[in-house]
Every structure is written in C-alpha cells, then in structure tokens.
Amino acid sequence: MSKQIVYTDEAPAPIGPYSQAVKINGTLFVSGQVAIELSTQGDIQAETQKVMENIGAILKAAGMDYPNVVKSSIFVKDMNNFAAINEVYGRFFTENPPARETVEVARLPKDVNVEISVIAVQ
C-alpha cells in the first residue's frame, strides 16, 4: 500500500490537520474544498465555480481530471441554493456524472456557503 499526499499551490492550503488529498492504490480522496475569499460576496454560483476549480487543480496535481471523479459530496448552508449550485456543478460533469449526495448543514468552516469533496479513481 503506497499512500501519497497530494498538494498544490493552485488550491487553498488546509486550514487544519488534514491534507488537500490523499492518493492510495489509484484512488484519490479530495478533502472538502471551499472558496473562503468569495463566501461573503453572496454569489453562490461564483463560490461554487471557485470550489470546482480548486478541485480541478487538486485532480490535476494527482494526474487526474473531472472524468476520474466517481463520487462527490456537497454540503450547503441553504438548500434553496441547490439549483444554482447544480447549474455550476453540472458544467464540470457533462457526461457520466459521479454518484453524489447533497446535504444541508447548519454551518461550514470559515462560514462559507458550500463545500464539496470528491473521490476519484485512475
């Protein structure tokens, strides 16, 4: 078993004791990504776009891309933003989208509005 920590300067550095991603046996586990710099602007689509770009940067650092994603988890502060988040998220998965759940939560780190994590396989 070969465990590789994946890190890129193209995505936010971890704000706690965790890695941006861990790759093991061809499977990449990407930690929840947020858009701290956009969370106070109130534009859920811009925030979601940045989160997905962060995920893309981490996937690239691991030698993967969006089609490698098999599972995603979306955590959102307000389920009323579901359609807006879906619209942006869907641009990144135009064919054969991954399995997914979307969960409304009371609060997210740094008071962001959306956090997304993914699992990808080579």
UniProtKB/TrEMBL annotation:
Superkingdom: Bacteria
InterPro entries linked to this entry: RidA, RutC-like_sf, YjgF/YER057c/UK114
Gene3D superfamilies membership: RutC-like
GO molecular function, a single term: deaminase activity
A Pfam family the protein falls into: Ribonuc_L-PSP
Any one GO cellular component localisation term in the record: cytosol
Similarity comment: family membership: Belongs to the RutC family.
PANTHER family in alphabetical order: 2-IMINOBUTANOATE/2-IMINOPROPANOATE DEAMINASE RIDA (PTHR11803), 2-IMINOBUTANOATE_2-IMINOPROPANOATE DEAMINASE (PTHR11803:SF39)
Entry protein name: Endoribonuclease L-PSP
The species this protein was found in: Spirosoma linguale (strain ATCC 33905 / DSM 74 / LMG 10896 / Claus 1)
